[in-house]
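We include the entry.

. . .
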Amino acid sequence: MLATAAPLHADELISIHGAMVAAEPVNAAAAQIKKETGLDFRIVSDGGSGGAVASIGEDVAEVALLSRKMTPQEHAAWPDKAFHEVQFGKQALLIVVPSQVWDGGVRALTKDQLRGIYEGRVKNWKALGGEDRKITFYNRDVRTSAWELLMFFLYDDIRKAPPSEAEVLVEPSDVTTAVEFNGGSICVLEYAAPKPAAVHALGIRLADGSVAEPTAKEIAAGRYELSRPLVIATPRKPAGKVRRFVDFMLGPAGQAFLNKTGHLSNADLDAK
């Protein structure tokens, strides 16, 4: 994926390498960034977070957009770089079900239970403490960051995820419509996406038996694990045009695009 805007002049063009999900709010903000700062940019999204880190480590890009924090190994790989990282939001997904499932008594699932639903081994809500009702699982499109995060949550590595024969939904609006009008359904939905009253978000039951609720407080604390940070990384402390870009994404105008693309802004997390 390549997002471009015509440069004003060469020294106002920022090269950015980014993971797909971290690039979403920045791409959405492109016109506003240009209007308010005069900056244009190009985002290359091949290679995920690892490729983005390598790009700033090797001075191929000036900014990396990551869906995780940098690892100690990455810092050690480029000892001459004084890497700078700042979180500009979080991606989180809700596990959503219709009123029939919620009212039937299912309010939380373990990771193993959700994995069983995804793999088609758990076929009825009765097996999960609910009513005798067939489970209809809707998958998310493999090209979306929602699918990617769900697979990381269930399998730790998307390469370990088995294929699914479930019907695929692309847009958040597709999810809410399908779940609301199918009494046994379940899917994942972007945290900040509009959600009708008849669609309910389940908690995640942890190994100790407690439930991590899908709230900003639990996400900020790291208890709700169906989430990950969105990070801006640079090879050194931002200055000049890079500082203007970082300041925009951390400011009110830039943070608004986190919510517009379904994510949590830093203000959402701080208001816990």
Summary: The first strand starts at residue 2 and ends at 3. Confidence is low (pLDDT under 50) at residues 1-10. The two ends are 34 Å apart (CA to CA). DSSP finds twelve helices and 13 strands in the chain.
